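Data deposition worksheet. Section B asks for the primary sequence of the deposited chain exactly as it was used as input, without tags or linkers unless they were present during the calculation. Section C holds the resulting structure in token form. Section D is free text for depositor observations; keep each observation to a single sentence. Incomplete worksheets are returned to the depositor.
Section A, Depositor: J.P.
Section B:
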Amino acid sequence: MVADILGIQIIGVLFGIFMVYYTFLKYKRAEFTVKEYSVWLGVWVVFVIVSIFSPFFKPVVEALGFVRTLDFLIILGFMFFIGISFYTYTLVRKNQRKLEDIVRRMAMEKK
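Section C:
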């Protein structure tokens, strides 16, 4: 069991390091702003730290009534995913309204 945990921790750390590098590339190519880069860098650093120190979450996990740390992390992941999805939806909706206004103005100018 310990070997499985260490294996998944290594995979998690390698994934986190790769994502830090990929985020850095996106920033260097000017596809991310400084704010976006900082947020995503923070997310991946926290991911690596959680991967390395997951046994230290055992008291928190037990206090919240979870059986395994993985259950707790999965629920946190879903919460993060839902939050990011909602944020993305609001951005798309805002852009949709702006586009509708632009199209409306262009249509009025052509009349």
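Section D:
The chain has two domains: 1-52, 69-111.
Residues 69-111 form one domain.
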